[in-house]
Amino acid sequence: MSADVINKAFLATEEDFLALVRKQWLNDPHMASVGSCCLVGIVCSGMLYIANAGDSRVVLGRLDNTYKEVKAVPLSSEHNASVESVREELRSLHPDDPQIVVLKHTVWRVKGIIQISRSIGDAYLKSAEFNRDPLLPKFRVPEPFDKPILSAEPETLVQKLDPEDQFLIFASDGLWEHLSSQEAVDVVNTCPRNGIARKLVKAALREASKKREMRYSDLKKIDRGVRRHFHDDITVIVLFLDFHLISQSYWQGPLVSIRGGVGVSGHSIC
């Protein structure tokens, strides 16, 4: 296991998906507009590997022995054009394109279309061969381009796990839009483990309903297809860490501890 192995896995997934888009191009051009953020966490031999492409986030809950509190430690950064450093990165990668990031209706977007700067898929922003008919005009970039606008390469973090590391929260941006990293950690730390991911989703939805000046019960009644206008899709996985187990080199448990999970109408995280 290494950061290089994970990086190659991301790029291989990207290549295979683009090959599928190419194969289906004439029959289903809409596939060229399909994309997903990808957030991966791996625990191996006492080490934690985090890889992220997109605007999902993973937060570590770590015990502060001095204050006897569990503090939130963000382990990933969001690749979203609303972040100034992301806009600077895009401008440095595309110095000849003054429209690489555009402020549209008070929201920064890549080419005025999409907020994220990294993803799996979104072939129409990766290769000019998909930026044409029969893809719908609303997905097309007006100016020709000769190199990918978005990237599938993840940002990777590798660090040793410590006894103070209590749990990890993996979530799509729908959760972080309504809860801070510390608020999410406080929920996990103060509630029973059983159903904790669902409790985080509920906490986020309650905040979303408050912002809309409506009751949570009324928000829940809205059809999922329509509810996208009230809040972004939310996916959450909480992984509790047992330092005694993960530090043992002779661990003979399952090689895959968590498989993908799907939350409210959308993204999968593994």
Automatic annotation (TrEMBL):
Q: Which residues form the PPM-type phosphatase domain?
A: 1-241
Pfam families membership: PP2C
InterPro entries, per the entry:
PP2C, PPM-type-like_dom_sf, PPM-type_phosphatase-like_dom
Q: Which domain of life is it from?
A: Eukaryota
Q: Which SUPFAM superfamilies match?
A: PP2C-like (SSF81606)
CDD domains registered for this protein in UniProt: PP2Cc
Coiled-coil intervals in this record?
A: none
Cited SMART domains: PP2Cc (SM00332)
**Know the name of this protein?**
Probable protein phosphatase 2C 38 isoform X2
Native species: Gossypium hirsutum
Give the lineage.
Answer: Eukaryota, Viridiplantae, Streptophyta, Embryophyta, Tracheophyta
